[in-house]
Amino acid sequence: MRGSISLLTRLQDFIDKIAEDKRFTIKLFALAFVVRVLFTLLHPKIYLISDMIGYNEAAMSMILDGEYRVKGVISAVRPPVYPFFLAFIYYIIGHDFLIVRLIQAVIGALTAVLTFKIGAKMFDRSTGVLAGLAYALYTASWAFSDLLLTECLFTFLMMLSVWFMMKIFEMRSPWVLFWAGFFTAAATLARTAYAPYMGFIFAALVILRFRNIKLISRFALAVVIFFMALLPWMMRTYYTKGAFTLNPKSGGDFFLYNHSNIYHIIQNYEDISYQFRYNTDTWDEVDKGRFGKKLAMEWIKKNPDLFVFKGVRMIMNIWGFDRDYHWYYFAGYYGQDPKWLLVLLVPIMAIPFAVFAPLFFAGFVISRPFDEEKLIPTLTLICLHILTFIVYGFCRHRYPFVALVVIWSAYAVMNWDQVKDTLKGKRGYLCKWAVLSVWVFLAMSWLLEIIVDGGAILKMQFQYPIF
Predict the structure, then answer these.
(1) Does residue 162 contact residue 380 with C-beta atoms inside 8 Å?
(2) Rounded mean pLDDT, 343-359
(3) pLDDT for 285
(4) Which of 52-66, 320-334, 365-379 has the lowest mean pLDDT?
(5) From 16, 67, 231, 411, which residue has the greatest number of CB atoms within 10 Å?
(6) What is the mean pLDDT of residues 307-311?
(7) Contacts of 317 (CB under 8 A, 6+ apart)
């Protein structure tokens, strides 16, 4: 025990010393960039699968004929920012996936720097330093920087939106409002599930800071800028699809897990029996969204107990292990990588988040999360959980927000004495049992995940019905 305490003390002292380095930001960027490049170069050749094919097609269609197509038809279901990002790279440099992945390594490194900056603003420079290093060396972030998916770019844009919303509290320039609205819109147009966050944060601020008229009016203006930035894409959707919406398939996403029975909910599989009751092949993007929303609402009204059970199950999902690298590997994204590499990377990918998660909740409880400098990140994570409960969520959907999770994890490490006092009940038994209860919930979530995924691997009838 003394040895572990001494080791922790040495770590804290080491981080404090690094925090004094005025060139830390540059060194952090270099470290984060190098490890991501090395990971990418482990397998320079990739094979597009799943959503990647749609993003690549949309990008190429814009270059070839100026249209935004998915599966050969003009579409609105793929948010535009990532395909535009790909199209810009293809147009300037050429159709080279390796170049895209290396540019995403730069974006991932910049996200590590943002994590440091936000952590320092929320707490202190030492906490920011540890958080930045943790994200730079967070193995799942290496993998997502290497995938041709929205996560890497979205995480960067989301963190920028959080950063500028935090700066509204101390606004020294009106441009802060513009950039807060702009980057929130850009993040939304990279992943439309981010659309409710600005509205939720504004509504929460109206309730929690109702006396601060100046702050509320500033955020109101940022909300206006946010919606103005989204307007062209929504008008384009109306023009091409006849629906004034951000994403016509949002109703389908709402339906996806809000119609299943208890077996499918536990197994994390959609119940596809509805496809035999409805002629879904004839539905276009707008029809799927409209009918999906209608059917989901009918199911919720008839099955409120299952809706709550589904919501809890989805919360368990987003706190599950990082395993996207494994699934993309098995799906053939990396082709024929040697098996020893997979065996080496599986635990390296899975373990870090299992450390971050319990530390996060401990740090969150002791941090006074609704104080001004922590309010925007706190509301962002609360909104994530609300949407996950209502719609659905998996570790992939949680991944971008780990950049915020590691900040509270770092705070717990740098203030471990406070965590110990909390677990001993010295800060109140409510705080103690809040931390312990969440840790039990995490353990139960991970145990269920091991059982379900283990069953699938062992072919114990835990598989998708159509396979």
Answers:
(1) yes
(2) 88
(3) 74
(4) 320-334
(5) 411
(6) 95
(7) 268, 388, 392, 393, 394, 395, 445
* pTM above threshold 0.70: yes
Query: What is the C-alpha radius of gyration for the chain, rounded to an integer number of angstroms?
Result: 22
Band the pLDDT of 275: cuts 50, 70, 90: low
Residue 237 is inside which H or E element, if any? helix 213-241
Name the packing angle between helices 81-92 and 97-122 (round to 10°).
Answer: 130
> To which residue do tokens 């530390």 refer?
359
Task: Give the pair of three-digit tokens for residue 10.
Answer: 């040495």
DSSP 3-state of 107: helix
Compute the distance between CA of residue 320 and CA of residue 244 in angstroms, rounded to an integer. Answer: 36
Helix ranges (H only) for 367-465 are: 372-390, 395-398, 402-414, 416-423, 429-457
How far apart are the C-alpha atoms of 8 and 119, rounded to whole Å? 20
pLDDT at 281: 64
Contacts of 295 (CB under 8 A, 6+ apart): 255, 259, 274
d(CA 463, CA 392): 19
**Closest by CA position to 159, among listed 177, 139, 179:** 179
Torsions phi, psi for 70 (to 5 deg): -135, 130
Summarize the confidence of residues 29-57 as an average pLDDT.
92
What torsion, rounded to 10 degrees, do the Cα atoms 326, 329, 331, 333 define? 140
Q: Give the integer Cα–Cα distance in Å for 131 and 122.
A: 11
Element (H, E) at 326: helix 324-330
Average pLDDT, the chain: 89
pLDDT at residue 117 above 90?
A: yes
